[in-house]
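**Protein of interest**
===
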Amino acid sequence: MSRIDKVVPGVGSFRAPLNAAILAANAGKMYGVSINSSGRAVIGGGAAADIVGVIIPTEGFAAGDPIDVFRLGEAVEFTTTAGSASTAGTVYYAGTNGDITTTNTGKAIGRTVEVGRLIIHVASLA
C-alpha cells in the first residue's frame, strides 16, 4: 500500500475535485491523473503527456470530492498499481489508463532510490 512520505512545500502538490468516484478497494494504490476541461482530476489521460501528477487515495471518494495530486515528493511502501513490489533504481511511468508500471509507454513519474521508496517528479503541468 503506497503512501506519501514527503512533499515539496508550495509546489509539490495541488488539490483538484475528482471527475469520477474511487472505490475504497483502491485505497493505497497509486494512479497517474490528468486534469480535464472542467478542472477535474481524471485517472489516466488521453495521451501520456496529459498526466500531471499522481494520487494515492486513502479511502473511497465520491465524484467531486477534492483529492491531493502530487508532483514532487516521496512515496514509501511503494508498489505498482497492480501491487507488484518496486525495484531500486527503476523509472516508473503512468500509462494512459492511469496505472503505474515500469513500461516505458507512459509519462515518467519518478524513480526508486531503494525498494519501496519512489522519488516523485512529474514534469510540466502543460
In short: The chain has one domain: 3-121. The chain has a mean pLDDT of 94. Residues 78 and 116 are 4 Å apart (CA to CA).
